[in-house]
Write a structure and sequence with these properties.
By secondary structure, the protein is α+β, with helices and mostly antiparallel strands. It is 37% helix and 23% strand.
């Protein structure tokens, strides 16, 4: 554990990519295979879910620290991070950590999930006595499910490629899909053997860059494929050995959640991998994303939900044909592969092609973007016809050109302290809109202000608190902010009757008093439009 904690510190202490990769290479070159397996899992974000109930964890940490609950909570509010609070408060005894990361995971961390609370408490007290310094902090981070460190998946892949001599593309592919960290798995990950036992595995997703410049700066319009940018679930459909696997971009297997799509996929030949967007779909048009959300978290889908929220896969790329990896072929050729595969599906299939837009010039592209919301799309995708299918996000070949967000001027009514580097500052806000003389809570937002503005708002909150409800403060309704959001929807779960998607602060309207904030009728007009 000490070696992994040292790696954590080395990554956290540097902003240089080369230093981070060097630290990873140094650790992976010398670590036992099982330790390397778990390290890779944690570094690419495969953290264990929280294994102990948070109230129990707080109570036991306070008990171990010898402080009353109120004092522990005050410390937590200042630190903003539960793992850090525990590490700082619980006294250290003489550490005697002689075991590796895999041992701590197998013998201390994962068993917590199946233990009774009293046994969990005993294990944690013993662990806190045994581990010291950074090792205890890292363990607490894993324990709380909050383990994060400043290294991207791409840097981990680069380090693994350097250590193993296997290409970065192959390593990235092997890290996709479902796997469990183990010595055997890590040996296969970095092995030179080219056969791949996991035939359900998808390919790494290729991602688009936001288009910040005028589209005409991209050159001739004929060099680009223009499509709608759909608001659904990006996924890959893998058809191999007579079975279908739907993988989300988050590498979650969506087995059984979209049976109508899996059923249509049975008509596809083995050795097919398609990239596309899962959408709630009816009468040739997408339904709002909130409808799709009703399907996302269901492991099984009943007949009524299937009827209420039918779904379809719109395909826009082909990655494998007859078991042959075609990602290196040009986008235009891969599109032809996709068209050939989808064309032979029977009528009524829930797999179709995402349409390409017929654009003669960049003016037509701009006009199409303006029509995006009418088409229930977020904007446009621009893909270079000659581009291969890459790994991750690369500038130059794929761009997303989203429509400008909707905006509303709303009043700050509630505030709560943030976490992490924003601990001790009020950074989590609830905003309201006017409904007659009343203010109706409308949306929450956590981002969009500069550090200087956050400090100003924090000072206002402290000087203008009307009531306290635990960590939440009600403040004088005086500050107005412009909120931006991607979508708007009717909702019976919100007091305003409105739900918005991806709300964030666009700017602080210091020029506008609260009585000039937008009204519920104004927001409903956006919805109707």
């Amino acid at each position: 554990m000490r070696q992994f904690a040292a790696l954590y510190d080395a990554i956290d202490a540097s902003t240089a990519t080369s230093s981070k990769v060097a630290a990873l290479v140094d650790f992976l070159s010398g670590a036992p295979v099982a330790d390397a397996a778990w390290a890779v899992a944690f570094l690419v974000g495969r953290r264990p879910k929280r294994l102990v109930k948070t109230p129990d964890l707080r109570a036991w940490a306070g008990e171990a620290a010898g402080v009353p609950p109120w004092l522990f909570e005050e410390c937590y509010a200042q630190a903003g991070d539960l793992a850090e609070t525990i590490t700082l408060l619980v006294p250290e005894s003489e550490a005697h950590d002689n075991e590796g990361l895999a041992w701590w995971v197998a013998h201390r961390l994962l068993p917590l999930q199946s233990l009774e609370p009293s046994d969990q408490r005993a294990v944690l007290f013993e662990t806190w006595r045994t581990l010291g310094g950074s090792a205890r902090f890292v363990f607490n981070k894993l324990l709380t499910g909050a383990f994060r460190v400043g290294v991207s998946d791409g840097l981990v892949v680069r380090a693994l490629a350097q250590v193993s001599g296997v290409s970065a593309e192959t390593i990235a592919h092997r890290l996709m899909g479902q796997w469990e960290p183990s010595a055997e798995w890590y040996t296969r990950l970095v092995g030179t053997e080219t056969t791949d036992a996991d035939w359900s595995r998808p390919y790494p997703f290729f991602l688009a860059y936001p288009l910040d410049a005028e589209p005409s700066s991209l050159g001739e319009v004929g060099e680009w494929q223009v499509e709608w940018k759909w608001d659904g679930i990006r996924c890959q459909l893998v058809r191999r050995r007579g079975r279908t696997f739907l993988w989300s971009r988050g590498e979650e297997l969506l087995a059984g959640r979209f049976p109508e799509v899996e059923s249509s996929a049975e008509w596809l030949p083995d050795g097919t991998v398609l990239d596309g967007e899962l959408l709630a779909w009816r009468d040739g048009k997408p339904l709002p994303f909130t409808e799709l959300q009703r399907r996302i978290n269901r492991k099984t889908v009943g007949k009524k939900l299937l009827a209420d929220v039918p779904c379809a896969l719109l395909v826009y790329d082909c990655l494998e044909v007859n078991g042959r990896d075609v990602r290196a072929e040009p986008m235009q050729v891969r599109r032809e592969h996709a068209e050939a595969l989808v064309r032979v599906l029977p009528g009524g299939a829930t797999i179709g092609l995402s349409p390409m837009l017929d654009v003669a010039d960049w003016a037509t592209v701009r006009a199409s973007r303006s029509d995006s919301r009418r088409e229930h799309a977020e904007g446009l995708m621009l893909k270079r016809r000659s581009s291969p299918y890459g790994v991750g996000r690369r500038a130059g070949d794929w761009y997303k050109w989203k429509v400008n967000p909707l905006t509303v001027d709303a009043v700050l009514v509630y505030a709560q302290a943030g976490h992490g580097r924003r601990a001790g500052l009020f950074t989590d806000y609830t905003f309201a809109i006017r409904d007659g003389e009343a203010l109706v809570p409308f949306a929450k937002a956590y981002s969009g202000l500069t550090d200087a503005e956050i400090r100003q708002v924090d000072k206002f909150v402290r000087n203008n608190t009307l009531e306290k409800f635990g960590p939440v403060r009600t403040v004088k309704p005086e500050l107005v902010f412009e909120l931006a959001f991607e979508g708007i929807q009717r909702s019976t779960r919100h007091k305003s009757g409105i739900a918005v998607r991806f709300p964030r602060i666009a700017r602080w309207r210091q020029d506008k008093p609260a009585h000039e904030a937008d009204t519920l009728d104004t927001v409903k007009a956006l919805l109707d439009a």
